[in-house]
Amino acid sequence: MAGQTAGGGSGPQLARAVLDAARARREAAAKTRRRSVVSGDGGERRLRGYSGPGPDPRDPQPLGAVLERLMKARGWHQPAAEATVFGAWEKVVGPEIAQHSRPVKLEDGELTVEARSTAWATQLRLLAKSLLKRIAGEVGHNVVRKLHIHGPAAPSWSRGPRRVRGRGPRDTYG
What is the pTM (predicted TM-score) of this model? Predict the structure, then answer.
């Protein structure tokens, strides 16, 4: 009676019954399983065996496709688009504009651009709408929503060794 269970079978008979039940479930699942499965990208992939002449998920993947999937999974599209504005400024706005300006800061969709001269700053302000369209076409919509265009930084006379408190002598420029 020591080897008997409450169901009436002994240990080896019970193990055999569990094994037979598991084998039957596996065979039933194998009959209902389809030979190929549709993957998420719309293509058909085989579960195992020879892949054949078509593309297969086991094939070596291009680095660009792998990086695209990684960026999508991690949510890095927005930071990558923002980096493109700075890294490929000449490609984004064109060589002539890039020669006379540079992006300084991108924060909350507002891009600060510094022009080489005040004349170019004025010209860029006039071209602001077309620049926004070009940037949106190159890096995506809503990456840059507004442009702040500044001229070159002027020298500051408020600090230094020859600083005079108050209004000064008023003959600085001749």
Answer: 0.52
Instruction: Please give the backbone phi and psi of residue 150, each rounded to the nearest 5 degrees, phi first.
Output: -120, 150
Nearest in space to 112 (alpha carbons), one of 156, 155, 151 = 151
Distances (CA, A) of 93 to 65, 86, 147: 26, 11, 13
**What CATH topology corresponds to 77-150?**
GMP Synthetase; Chain A, domain 3 (3.30.300)
Query: How many CB atoms neighbour CB 162 within 10 A?
Result: 7
Tens of pLDDT, residues 10-60:
888 888 888 899 999 888 887 776 554 555 555 555 556 666 787 777 788
Q: Where are the domains of the chain?
A: 77-150
Q: Give the CA count within 13 Å in the CB-facing half-sphere of 133.
A: 3
